[in-house]
Amino acid sequence: MSRPGGSQGKISQINKSAGPGDINHLMRQAISLHQDQQFNDAIAVYRKILMMSPGNADALTYFGCALLEIGRASEAIDRLHEAVAADASSADARSYLGNALQVAGDSEGAEVAYRAALDIEPLECRTLNNLGVLLLKNNRLDEAAEFFRRGLAVDPNHVQAHNNICQVYTKLGKIDRAIEAGRQAIEIAPRYADGHNSLGTALVRADRIDDAIMSFREALAIQPQFLDALTNLALALINAGDSREAVEVTDVCLEVDPGNIEALATRSVALNEIGDKGSF
């Protein structure tokens, strides 16, 4: 399942003109480090900026984003709350706060933050998609679909939104629409492994097992250790009557993640199908 999008798509849009010259220089340096995913170095520069300008909303916002990128969600939430307090009109600060709260498991708080961001910037596709992801995770499928559709109305080439709405339609049993959305995702980004995997899942629901197997293989050609695609491929192979290859596929999955419950269960089913009760 998709996760909320990070800061990489918009960080270059920071207001670089605000503040004294030294702060401008440091902000450009921090932006460059952040874009290069040198998050710890970027954090050090954000700290310098905030020593010079404690209420700098841009620095607080992207400091929070960098903290989230390195797994420090609690600290990220603190900085992003400070960013919102420093600039109540910042949709970015509220949107990234939503990301941090979602990662921290606070779905209710994340939803409030995303909706507040959309009150300020109602056509921000990244926020529309991330709120849709949150709703999808909480099985609020019709609401999730609505936000993905709103995002696609703004940006018809938003590949994650096409992929996410494919997953929603599959869960809702709207399989033709799911397949259409999945195909749109991989037409936009042919090497998007998630898109091939989601399309494969929809094709399974349509009982097009051979086509589904092809989609899962495409996902794995792009991302060989894609655990969801590995287990999905194994299940599809069992349905196609090729349980021996299914065992081989689950073995690959278990090499990556020995405790993967879904892979263990799928391997057991495959072994039963071929009459081999061997240990796993």
Task: Explain the layout of strands and helices.
Elements (H helix, E strand, L loop, with lengths): L20 H15 L3 H14 L4 H13 L3 H14 L4 H13 L3 H14 L4 H13 L3 H14 L4 H14 L2 H14 L4 H13 L3 H14 L4 H13 L3 H14 L4 H13 L7
Helix pairs in contact: 1-2, 2-3, 3-4, 3-5, 4-5, 5-6, 5-7, 6-7, 7-8, 7-9, 8-9, 9-10, 9-11, 10-11, 11-12, 11-13, 12-13, 13-14, 13-15, 14-15
Helix-strand topology string: HHHHHHHHHHHHHHH
N-C termini distance: 27 Å
Any idea what the radius of gyration is? 22 Å
Unreliably modeled segments: 12-19
What is the helix content? over 70%
What is the overall pLDDT average?
A: 92
Shape: elongated
SS summary, helix count: 15
Main beta sheet:
none
| Number of strand elements | 0
What descriptive keywords fit this protein?
mainly alpha; single chain; elongated; 280 residues
What does this structure look like?
- Helix content is 73%, strand content 0%.
- It has 280 residues and is mainly α.
- The radius of gyration is 22 Å and the shape is elongated.
- Mean pLDDT is 92; it is low at 12-19.
Q: What's this, in brief?
A:
The protein is mostly helical. The protein has helices at residues 21-35, 39-52, 57-69, 73-86, 91-103, 107-120, 125-137, 141-154, 159-172, 175-188, 193-205, 209-222, 227-239, 243-256, 261-273.
